[in-house]
Structures are given as structure tokens and as C-alpha cells.
Amino acid sequence: MGAGHAHRLYRHGHSRVHGLPPHTKLAAAFAFVVVVVSTPREAMWAFGVYALLLAAVAYAARVPSGFLLKRLLIEVPFVAFAVLMPFVAEGERVDVLGLSLSVNGLWGAWNVLAKGTLGVAASVILAATTELRELLLGLQRLKLPPLLVQIASFMIRYGDVITDEMRRMRIARESRGFEAKGVRHWGVLAKSAGALFIRSYERGERVHLAMVSRGYAGSMPVIDEVTADRAQWSYALALPCAALVVCLLGWVL
Fold first, then answer.
1. For 44-63, what is each residue's pLDDT tens digit?
2. What's the rounded Cα separation, in Å, for the pair 199 and 171?
3. Residue 106 · residue 91 · CB < 8 Å
4. Which end of the chain is less crowded, N or C, counting CB atoms within 10 A of the terminal residue's CB?
């Protein structure tokens, strides 16, 4: 985990949220999502308060609303699933604008939309304020199994390498006059995919041999020891603690 690795979700900044240790932000985001999921779906006002809390965090992190909303589009498939629930769910029916909808389906759709959107928004804010390398260090600090951290690290590092290899192969095909237009060209694409797999496998073997020759014995050395003081933990956990109060009120009221 030597050099940094920027990603499209990250937004460079110098806010206090950016400066928090990564493991505190990971713990806060996870705790917030757990609290949101634990909130009764009938407490609709609570989800509005959660949205305001996330908006306050985004404001403190200087993450523009347009940046956040654009990346929320990743949940569109879940929205489509939620829209179908009132039509396919069983149970008591109610007429809405001439349509017969399931009451349980409507509650289920609201539950999926509200909790899913808040969870995705929390994840987007986390990714926007934390670099991938820092996320891996945070997972390592939170005692995630080292093997899983290493697998994630290699996926991140060599995902771009494989993507770039695909781009070069595409350019090579196009420079020879090839352009995929139909089923009859699938054979060429399949051969390209096979060649890419073999190249990636061989590259992985060479990388592994290089690591072993440098003393790799199943664990990566810890270069940066990430720590957090009490003030940083308090600042990071302010979001899930406030959400927990709202959740408890949602169960009581």
C-alpha cells in the first residue's frame, strides 16, 4: 500500500471530515447505516432527520449537492425494484390514481427507497472524503482479515492495469480495420477476452514471484500506522450518535 490511488468518487479537499482518520469514518458510516436500517419504517419523519444529518456532514466536508446527487444514480436498479413492489406484493389493496396497489408493497417500497438512499448517500460521502489507500488502511486498522485487505488492495491496483490493457487491445483491433458490428464478430472478441485473461494471469504470476523474491511471506508490511485520538473519535461518531437518538425516538413516539 505504498503510493496513493485516486478514484472518481473521491473529491480532494481540506475539510475537517477529510482530515479524520479513515477507520473512524468507516466505523461512523457503518454505525449510521445500522441505525438507519434499525429504524421502523412507519417513523417517516426520522428518515427526513437522517437526510438533514447527512446534508450537514456533506456541507462540513464541502461536498457539493450536485456531486452527491449524480453519484446517487447508482441506486437506480433498486428504485426500479421498489417501484414494482406495490404491484406484485400480496395483502390488503388500496386504490391510488385508479391503480390497485398493495399496502404492504407500498410500505416495502418506502422502506427500500428511504433506507437504501440514505445508505448510498453515506457511502458516497465516505468515498468522497477518503482516498482508496486510506480506506484500505482503515480496514486494516479495524482488524479486517489481512487476506481480504490484500485482495482488495490488489483489485484496486491492477483494475486500472487490466482496463488499460483492454484499451490497448481495442486500439490494436481498430488499427487493423476491425469493428464489432454483429454476432459474427463475437468470435474475435472472445479470443481477445481469452488473450486478456492469459496476460493477466501471467502478470499476476510475475508480480507474485517479484513479491516473494523481496521477502513476502503472506502479509504486507504496515508502512503507515494510522491512529486517532479521543477528539477525532468524538467528531466522527457524532453522526451515528445523533442518528441513534432519532432511532430511539422513532420507536418510542
1. 999 999 999 999 999 999 99
2. 17
3. no
4. C
- Residue given cell 486498522 in the structure block: 141
Global pTM reads 0.82
pLDDT at 45: 96
Q: CA end-to-end span of the chain, whole Å?
A: 48
pLDDT for position 3: 44
3-state secondary structure of 52: helix
Q: Where are the alpha helices (DSSP H) in the chain?
A: 16-19, 22-38, 44-60, 65-71, 76-88, 103-129, 132-141, 146-175, 186-213, 230-236, 238-252
Give yes or no for a contact between 136 and 9, defined as CB atoms under 8 angstroms apart: no
DSSP state of 215: T
Q: In angstroms, rounded to a whole number, what is the distance separating the alpha carbons of residues 82 and 85?
A: 5
Residue type, 64: P
Torsion of CA 168, 173, 179, 185, to 10 degrees: -110
Answer for the pair 229, 23: CB distance below 8 angstroms, yes or no.
no
How many other β-carbons are positioned within 10 Å of the β-carbon of residue 178? 14
Q: DSSP class of residue 101?
A: E
Mean pLDDT of successive 10-residue stretches along the chain, which has 253 residues: 59 92 95 96 95 96 92 88 86 82 90 94 95 88 87 82 87 86 84 90 88 82 78 95 96 90
